[in-house]
Specification:
There is one protein chain. The chain is an all-alpha fold. The protein has 2 domains: 255 residues, no CATH class; 127 residues, Orthogonal Bundle (Arc Repressor Mutant, subunit A), CATH 1.10.10. It is 72% helix and 2% strand. It is built from 18 helices and 3 strands. The protein has a 3-stranded antiparallel sheet with strand order 1-3-2. α13 packs across α15. It is globular, with a radius of gyration of 28 Å. The chain starts with a helix and ends in an 8-residue tail after the last helix. This is Membrane protein. It is a multi-pass membrane protein. It is found in: Cell membrane. Pfam families: Virul_fac_BrkB (PF03631).
Length: 447
């Protein structure tokens, strides 16, 4: 039996990964692609990193829930819709059963008791910092999914985060209010008695919670990661995560309703344990949706074995020279300087390796970045003074420090002679060629 299962699994995996997606017929590709995505996402889930980040977000959520709702409450109060905050929170905690409504009521009570005059300026700053720190932790988790190794700058962080925190609730409650208004309109009520229109309207009413969650998740996937996320991948991730979240909410609510033993085991802490579990599942589903969006945007990473974005020495040398050439060419011809997003889009690479090379060139003194919200990159000095051999040496020596250099490593004389000969030959091939010589009068014709 075991041999048969192993044989079936081997045939299944070989058939799944044997052919390149680009060479498949369209019908077959649309069948194979979701299966591959399911396998790869499950592999990511079993890897453990998404679980750890979901657990970290649970802890941050517990600390930041009241401050976050306080900021949202103050914004919504200006629009006169703050009374809808408690029903929405109760809906989020609905899978916890009757105690979920009690928790939402207590949390709203805490929020209403927060007064800016009592907090003072220092307390208000701490309140905003707590809210921003939650969004920063979410961005960090999403950046891991999107293989981005840097957060936004401080100024961009506050402007982006606060815009999401302040505008997001207004849009959400506006959508909820618009839905309620349309549903209660007399024309809609009269159509409810006409079949099959009435049945369609009832079905639409049941789908509205899914649609609102999908829109919310898609909005998060579009604006939180520190990279350019396309609309279609964000929407696909939002659909997957939204359906999973709503469905898991029903399953969790059924579990709570049919499992009274948890109260006997945990006593007064039972509702807290259930709250932690539900928060963990919610964050895990949100991260899984982000993972789906990543693979939809970058299907080339749907591989049989996990792809490690670690540049070899050869690839790092090639990418560094390519990036410096592109920056110098735009500078030489007075074109718009390159940004990280523009370089990523032009090269067709994920952000992580491109950003790593840019940081290396910045630290080595060959590039400088502007102070814009989205920094652009310029040569730090005249490209006529930057030798290609200097770029080559900077890339090859990346990562060395005073405790780990060539001089600190023991070496045999024959090996040393060979490496010196190789290095000398490389420098002789490059000669005194500068970055300006490399660019010449012919620069990039596109990009």
């Amino acid at each position: 039996m075991t041999n048969r299962l192993f044989h079936f699994y081997s045939r299944f995996t070989d058939g799944l990964w044997r052919q390149d997606l680009r060479e498949m017929e369209r019908t077959k590709r649309w069948v194979i692609l979701p299966v591959r995505m399911l396998v790869v996402v499950l592999r990511q889930l079993l890897g453990g990193q998404l679980n750890l980040r979901a657990m970290s977000l649970v802890y941050t959520t517990l600390l930041s829930t009241v401050p976050l709702l306080a900021v949202s409450f103050s914004v919504l109060k200006g629009f006169g819709v703050h009374n809808q905050l408690e029903p929405i929170l109760a809906n989020v905690l609905a899978p916890l059963g009757p105690r979920g409504a009690e928790i939402s009521s207590n949390v709203i009570g805490f929020v209403e008791n927060i007064k800016a005059g009592v907090l003072g300026s220092l307390g208000l700053v701490f309140l905003l910092y707590t809210v921003v720190s939650l969004t920063q932790k979410i961005e960090s988790s999403f950046n891991y999914v999107w293989q981005v190794d840097r957060l936004r700058g401080m100024a961009q962080r506050f402007s982006s985060y606060l815009s999401v925190i302040l505008i997001g609730p207004v849009l959400m409650f506006a959508a909820v209010g618009l839905t309620a208004t349309i549903t209660s309109h007399s024309a809609v009520q009269s159509l409810m008695g006409v079949e099959p229109i009435g049945r369609i309207l009832v079905l639409t009413g049941k789908l509205i919670p899914y649609l609102l969650v999908i829109v919310t998740f898609s909005f998060i996937y579009l604006f939180i990661p520190n990279t350019r996320v396309k609309m279609v991948p964000a929407l696909v991730g939002g659909v997957v995560a939204g359906v999973l979240w709503q469905t898991s909410g029903w399953i969790f609510a059924a579990f709570v309703a049919t499992s009274p033993n948890y109260a006997a085991i945990y006593s007064g802490f039972a509702i807290l344990v259930l709250l932690l579990i539900w928060l963990y599942l919610s964050w895990l589903i949100l991260l899984l949706g982000a993972q789906v969006a990543f693979y939809v945007q970058y299907p080339q990473y749907l591989t049989r074995e996990p792809v490690k974005l670690q540049l070899s020495n050869r690839l790092q040398e090639r990418l560094a020279l390519q990036v410096m050439y592109m920056v110098a060419a735009h500078h030489f011809n007075n074109r718009e300087p390159w940004t990280l997003d523009a370089l990523v889009q032009y090269l067709g690479l994920p952000m992580q390796p491109v950003h790593k090379v840019l940081r290396l060139m910045l630290e080595s003194g060959f590039l400088s970045e502007t102070c814009d919200d989205e920094p652009a990159y310029l040569p730090r000095r005249d490209i006529d003074t930057i030798l290609v051999s200097q770029l080559y040496d900077a890339v090859r020596s990346a990562g060395e420090n005073r405790l780990l250099t060539i001089s600190t490593l023991p070496g045999e004389s024959h090996v040393e002679q060979l490496l010196v000969a190789v290095n000398t030959a490389a420098h002789e091939a490059m000669g005194d060629r500068t970055l300006k010589d490399l660019v010449g009068d012919k620069s990039l014709t596109s990009g």
